[in-house]
Amino acid sequence: MDSPPITTDATEVQLIDESPEFRSLRSSFRSFAFPVTIGFVLWYLLYVLLSCYAPGLMGTKVLGHVNVALVLGLLQFVTTFAIAAWYARYAGRRIDPSATAIREAHGAVVHAPRESAE
Amino acid sequence: MTALASSATEHRGLTMTLFGLFVLATLAITVWAGRQNRSAADFYAGGRGFTGFQNGLAISGDYMSAASFLGIAGTIALAGYDGFLYSIGFLVAWLVALLLIAEPLRNSGRFTMADVLAFRMRQRPVRTAAGVSTIVVSIFYLLAQMVGAGALVALLLGVTGEGAKRWTILAVGALMIIYVVIGGMKGTTWVQIVKAVLLIIGAALMTVLVLAKYHFNPSELLGAAASASGKGTAFLEPGLKYGASNTSKLDFISLGIALVLGTAGLPHILVRFYTVPTAKAARKSVLWAIGIIGVFYLMTLALGFGAAALVGRSGMVAVEGKTPSGNTAAPLLAEQLGGGAGSTGGAIMLAVISAVAFATILAVVAGLTLASSASFAHDLYANVIRRGRASEREEVLSAKWAAVAIGAIAVVLSLFAGKLSTAALVALAFAVAASANLPTLLYSLFWKRFTTAGAVSSVYAGLISSVALVVFSPVLSGGKNSLFPHSDFHWFPLENPGLVSIPIGFLAGWLGTLLSRERPDQAKYAELEVRSLTGLGAH
User: Fold this and answer.
1) B293: left (phi over 0), alpha (psi -120 to 50) or beta
2) A17 CB near a chain B CB, below 8 Å?
3) Domain residue spans in chain A?
4) What is the ipTM of this complex?
5) Which terminus in chain B has less CB density within 10 A, N or C?
6) Which domains does chain B have, with CATH numbers?
7) What is the pLDDT of residues B229-241, one digit of tens each?
């Protein structure tokens, strides 16, 4: 209870951490998650700043009573859905298979006390 | 007689009956779930037996609070386009949780946020810090919901006076304690699922009815809203609420940043990732949540502009008084859609939507109470006070007592905080979570050099700066809508502290790490990396 249970052998884990398979898994994850996070945060901030400081642009009518502000706001929804779908696809192809491979290769060494998942 | 008050007596019985049914059904679920709870993993994490879809619904239930449903619809109805910005921030925030937090957290922790920090840091200081910030954030959020419940009951049931508000807050407090103590995470999760389904159905029904009035032409709806508002096209553009001065623009940016970074630091959201068996299921639950929450927030747009067009400011002023908060916009719109005040259809719609709003509040407070009591028991009691010598039974028992205590504290504080607005309080909870919890979580997961000193300074600096800036902001004093309008000790101009306190949280974590002589535990970080990415050794 005190410390998180050490379920893995330290040297074994170190070896996994340094293995080329794990390195490539880590870079697959980071090279997607980090730049995409920076991207959508900047895109969101741009939207927030435009709302504050570009009222003229935001108020421009596009179609009927629909203006640029509304279109840009709805575009935030679209990009959020798109990034989520993109990540789901990417993770299914690039992350899950190598994570599973590493887990299976070392599963015999590393015993996790799985709690009963009824 | 106002429109609402005249129909109040007719629909009160119906609202009470519908809400009573919800309470009975959820209590039955709670008792059923409670009978299956045996281990600590059952109590804290629902046995980790939920599927991604079930947990996605439960996350949506936890997230779509009174602030989302009543608050956003009301803000759009009153301030037009500016209210929509809440919806966008609340939704985009989920990408942070999806890409950076959900899966690593699921793999490397057991029951609480502090588990991730404690993985490679010294247990007692980081668990104390994380436990304290979890409880503070949860209490801010709890206050928001319970104040909302108190205000709503008076309006929706047509009962006035402080007595009714107090009894409502007490009843909500008692129910949430029962859900948590008896049902644990399994019971609470099912309550969230039921509530999420009810809320989605209610919002969808209203959206269709609103759009039908305008021939399913959104532009026509917008035009009607703009002309009914008396503000013309300005109602459809940003700036009505936040565009007045440079200070209010900064406040808006501060709010925007707090919303987008706060979600992934909210304790009651984080613990949800432990209720599924694997990291992949955690990812799936966030994907479902993004879909459900996204559609819901799109519907708030129709509800808000619909309320602006069909109820109007005057309709809310009639019920709420001179300075309406907008919290009644959605229920009043429901009444209007059903046929208007005094009609049977209107009474039925009002009763249904009011019952859904109560269900929403009740479920969210239960989730918050569970997350904070779990952190008290697992972090503060078991690992700090008892130094890891508490048995599992003692730990769960202490969580149940903590639920009673936290519930009682929230009830007492709510009785005094009755004047604060629900949306403002929720935004503050987001700011505190983004300042105190998110920086240390990100550093712990992704920065090799991060140390205990860094983690502790990040949590406390983020927590203290955000809370202190709120204390000295116009939220507490110096403004017409302040908690203490007659005194003025404010010097911080913004209502939301995020713009300042979030950078402080990140900076303190970085400086604390660089300035301490402590060496990071390299082997432990390697283990955390492997576990968080592959799930090897995960619980």
Assistant:
1) alpha
2) yes
3) 10-106
4) 0.91
5) N
6) 3-93+136-420 (1.20.1740)
7) 888 888 999 888 8
